[in-house]
């Protein structure tokens, strides 16, 4: 059996963690076309009874192409998708082919530590981890108990590993691969205060720099947490703010107030070299003027602001109603239709629409 990670054209420095867990469980080699792009067709050099492909909405078209090519060269092979419990990128759900390789134990301390040596791109990872160019990526938890309407993670129950288990993985990565920093990719790292503080105490002696790539919640952040995080090597912090307008926060069910966010920023500025916020333009109850106000608000508070466009999402994310697919409906009409259309077209390569029938036909032939 071999596993294939298609080229997603983004996050080349971040391994496909869900795939890494599955590969570790099955002790299977991974052809990683996202981090090591060339030769593009090298997966065809590996004849296997089963080729498992990681299929995300972002890589759907690529995955179908790979399946076709593999099947054409090795007609007796089965091509399956890899279906895992861990969905690392909250914005890009994993999809499934009809036939699947399943590794769906709920995320916990019982997971093995991911063995990235199984990736054929491993030497790139190792070199860049050691040279401080890339950070080692880790998931310490998955899911979130909050209900922000634009976020996929709201549908996933929060499941956290223990602080000790996460520390052991990072210690192993430092001893074995010489990592010099790490980044936490959790949907929301700071749900459990005691777990965060314990984790910080444990990793402090490792003297590694670290950060939380997806931002943390301001209303779960306080002075104790700030002190523990900064003393253990976290020098930059980002909050998921989304908007500085109270009505917008209410409309998106953010579950926190602008006053509480301001309080967290004040604390963070005492402890961290850099403080930033993630914002989203075009949210329900927002407008061009309101989004500009959020930008001014961030400037006044001296924080870096990262803006992204609001992605329309249908509530039920299923095969036929992906948030980018035909079933998706914008939840905000605040931006003019022409602008929405331009953004929709610009993100065309991310949509799997139009490929579904082709995939079904293709897989129907695989069922022998
Ligand atoms: S708090 Fe963060 S992770 Fe949780 S639902 Fe809201 S945006 Fe998503």
Report on the structure:
The protein is an alpha/beta fold. The protein has a domain of 131 residues: Rossmann fold (3-Layer(aba) Sandwich), CATH 3.40.50. Helix content is 33%, strand content 16%. The chain has a 5-stranded parallel β-sheet with strand order 2-1-3-4-5. It has a 3-stranded parallel β-sheet with strand order 6-9-10, covered by helices on one side. Strand 12, helix 9 and strand 13 form a beta-alpha-beta unit. Helix 4 packs parallel to helix 5 and helix 5 packs parallel to helix 6. The protein is globular. The C terminus is likely disordered. The site of iron/sulfur cluster has 10 residues, from loops.
Which ligands appear in the coordinates? Answer: iron/sulfur cluster
Main β-sheet description: 5 strands, parallel
The end-to-end distance, rounded to whole angstroms, is 18 Å
CATH domain class of one domain: Alpha Beta
Helix residue percentage: 25-40%
SS summary, helix count: 11
Gist of the model:
With 368 residues, this protein is of the alpha/beta class. Helices cover 33% and strands 16% of the residues. The protein has a five-stranded parallel beta sheet. It has a three-stranded parallel beta sheet with strand order 6-9-10, with helices on one face. It has a three-stranded parallel beta sheet with strand order 11-12-13, with helices on one face.
């Amino acid at each position: 059996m071999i596993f294939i990670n298609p080229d997603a054209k983004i996050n080349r420095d971040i391994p496909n963690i869900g795939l890494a867990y599955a590969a570790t469980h099955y002790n299977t080699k991974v052809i990683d076309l996202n981090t090591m792009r060339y030769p593009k067709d090298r997966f065809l050099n590996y004849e296997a009874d089963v080729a498992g492909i990681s299929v995300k909405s972002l890589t759907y078209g690529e995955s179908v192409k790979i399946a076709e090519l593999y099947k054409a060269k090795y007609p007796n092979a089965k091509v399956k998708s890899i279906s895992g419990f861990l969905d690392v990128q909250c914005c890009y759900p994993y999809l499934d082919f009809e036939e699947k390789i399943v590794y769906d134990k709920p995320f916990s301390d019982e997971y093995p530590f991911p063995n990235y040596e199984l990736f054929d791109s491993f030497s790139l990872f190792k070199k860049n981890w050691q040279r401080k160019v890339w950070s080692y990526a880790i998931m310490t938890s998955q899911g979130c108990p909050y209900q922000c309407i634009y976020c996929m993670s709201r549908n996933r129950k929060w499941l956290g590993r223990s602080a000790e288990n996460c520390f052991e993985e990072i210690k192993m990565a430092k001893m074995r691969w010489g990592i010099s920093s790490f980044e936490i990719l959790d949907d929301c790292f700071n749900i459990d205060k005691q777990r965060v503080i314990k984790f910080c105490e444990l990793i402090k002696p490792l003297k590694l720099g670290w950060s939380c790539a997806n931002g943390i919640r301001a209303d779960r952040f306080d002075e104790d947490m700030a002190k523990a995080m900064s003393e253990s090597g976290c020098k930059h912090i980002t909050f998921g703010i989304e908007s500085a307008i109270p009505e917008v926060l209410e409309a998106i069910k953010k579950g926190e107030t602008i006053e509480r966010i301001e309080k967290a920023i004040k604390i963070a500025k005492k402890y961290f070299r850099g403080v930033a916020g993630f914002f989203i333009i075009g949210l329900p109850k927002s407008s061009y003027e309101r989004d500009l106000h959020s930008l001014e608000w961030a400037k006044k508070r001296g924080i870096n602001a990262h803006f992204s466009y609001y992605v329309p999402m249908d509530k039920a994310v299923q095969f036929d109603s992906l948030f980018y697919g035909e079933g998706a409906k914008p939840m905000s009409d605040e931006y003019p239709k022409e602008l929405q259309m331009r953004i929709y077209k610009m993100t065309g390569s991310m949509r799997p629409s139009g490929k579904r029938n082709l995939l079904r036909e293709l897989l129907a032939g695989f069922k022998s």
